[in-house]
């Protein structure tokens, strides 16, 4: 048993459940992502975000399961009566229970312990009325099911025109990069070792859907993380680092995907990477990119352009079936026209 300090200064008791997890079977329940709900919030104008207080503790353990969580302390042996953090089935079990408790609530979405309530309408006034009605139904359900909410966080994200949610900023105009994550990158000092580069690339990759041609801009830094590479922070890496920090502050607002509108996949390939962009009505829905392997870099340009299309179709497969693909490589177009 160890204790860690929570952001509010209170202690959190943690156990090491790794030996137990080896014997546990995880539930087969899909965990939703932010991309799953974005099409549904495309017409939302008012948002509220709240989280469940001590989320896992809402799930009471059976006597048999409780016995399995027994742990030793200097004061004797104890066991959990409620589901603790760290056991492998916990995320799926909690997600399923919470979604069951809140099912059929209008414009209410659940990802882990973060709950989003939205309001829609042609005007802001209509959206606020719709939101307030949905929020009232949600709170009544929470009272009925004895779901405890974090009141402090609810006050900060109540009835807003834009709210941070799962690492993104939801607004009435579209999806924005979370300013806190952007600020963390722009204030980051130049890395002094490989671990620092890996941390930087990982932070930027979290915002990859907003960043066009991210793979190409990251290439000078990524080279430093290769197995046999020697550490050298030259002007090339410094320029790439500054360029990334500058461009991350200029990423566009992404349009919410609409199933009713025509969608286009734009693909391109460079000497070092592949890029793809989903657009609707000329506005970006999402970007994606990746570096080419050493073998792929030896491909002819026409093969790279075709590979970019394959990459884009696979990356955005849930959107791209039966859709239009755009490529700026004329020879590739001629090949596809041949019988």
UniProtKB/TrEMBL annotation:
Pfam families: RT_RNaseH_2, RVT_1
Coiled coil feature spans: none
Catalytic class of the enzyme: hydrolase
GO molecular function: RNA-DNA hybrid ribonuclease activity
Gene3D superfamilies referenced in this protein's UniProt entry, alphabetically: 3.10.20.370, 3.30.70.270, HIV Type 1 Reverse Transcriptase, subunit A, domain 1
Origin superkingdom: Eukaryota
Domain Reverse transcriptase, first and last residues per copy: 1-170
Known EC number: 3.1.26.4
Family statement drawn from the similarity comment of this UniProt entry: Belongs to the beta type-B retroviral polymerase family. HERV class-II K(HML-2) pol subfamily.
Listed name of the protein: ribonuclease H
